[in-house]
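Extended Data, record aspartate--tRNA ligase
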Amino acid sequence: MSSESEEQQLSKKAAKKEAAKLEKMRRRQEAAALASAASSLSVEEEDSYSSNYGDVTLPELKSCSKPDAGNWSIVISSMDWTRVGALTQELKEKEVLIRGRVHTTRPVSKNMAFVVVRERGFTVQCLVATHEAGVSRQMVKFVAALNRESIIDAIGMVSVPGNPIKGTTQQVEIHVRKLYCVNKAMPTLPINVEDAARSDAEIEAALQAGDKLPRVNQDTRLNFRVLDIRTPANQGIFRIQCQVGTIFRQFLLSEGFVEIHTPKLIAGSSEGGSAVFKLDYKGQPACLAQSPQLHKQMAICGDFGRVFEVGPVFRAEDSYTHRHLCEFTGLDVEMEIKKHYSEVMDIVDRLFVTMFDSLNEKCRKELEAVGKQYPFEPLKYKPKTLRLTFEEGVQMLKDAGVEVDPLGDLNTEAERKLGQLVLEKYDTEFYILYRYPLAVRPFYTMPCYDNALYSNSFDVFIRGEEIISGAQRVHVPEFLAERAQACGIDVNTISTYVDSFRYGVPPHGGFGVGLERVVMLFCALGNIRKTSLYPRDPQRIAP
């Protein structure tokens, strides 16, 4: 065979091969086109309800008032919102619009998924199923793929299941017909709210059963505080804290007090000592106020009669304890004394009994949520608060075999022991200890009339821990300057304070209490960082 005929034969084979290749490609393209067409038809069929779900677009989230801005805007513009906590059986067969976070999702099949929605500590189970009008398979898939903690809006009918719903606060179920994702959370979170909400008892019970559940330690919680405070217990803690501040204001206003706001940038130190945050103030040495003490007294000099303040307090102490912070919220009171400094203690008595009564009455759900994760016994207190002198307290400790300095301060162990003894003898965990030794009180404390070793001062205790310190103040300027020098304070740094008493001032006294400490001890939480929204201690200045 000649080389020319061989080339022709090879050329024919190549052409056939190429033709076969092209035919195969054509068939593949046709098959793909058919599949695509079928898929398009399927998608079109499934997405006939696409307006009932999806991600809310950014233009819609810019507070656009146009009714046709998007599916979500159209839907929510015609409905009122219902809080998750308000979803009760009385709303059976009513259509509601709710907003909350995706707490958990549980896909059951291609046709059904459950999503638990959480809002401010309350949770409700939502059912998304294709047998409901307006729900497609793709909607079920969309819901099942939602990331935990994402913000969603859901519309559906309230249903009351025959059996109790486990794992949610609300005993109703929402049969969803529309659902929109307002804001997506990350697929993987640093901590899960579900893990952060578990009690130690739950974790231990799981261990006994052979299961190991995640335990979120305190540092991790504080590092990711914005997630941690979403737990039901933390929602309860800070709503209780809000109520404490509210009662404090309302009670004092009803007693004729005036709310004031004092500066936190001061020259010198308000309490004396070295535990101050020092700073440069336009070339002058200054510090952050350890308390509003001096200025609230000056307000009494200014004829306000009775004043109070709620504001930040700064302490630069290197205290690595369960009850100390470098910054906390102070609740401070100052008032004119007519006859005796017991008038100040009378205010303390009635204020805190009112506060405890109100918390027990108005914060039942919040206290229940706190107790579920951090079990505690309700605080024992009396309608008329027990008062003991410091000397009586010392004697009770001595009788119990605890030796303390009769002219010194009580340490933490002695305070706890005395609290235990008071509970056993008087059946109360809230009491006032007054007439403290002068040597352990601030320079502005008035000495006792009958014994200069003691003072017209008091501390208040909850569950064996001090929460309030108060006293009658020295209002005679010469004696005040003498006391300041005796305590090592440069009188020149507080000259405006001392001079304010040279213009005439009535006898007066007051007290201060840490808001976080009140909540910590009322709920027996064991660590003040649990009651500080974003704690500041010697090792933490963020977040």
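Summary. The chain has three domains: 53-183, 200-229, 232-530.
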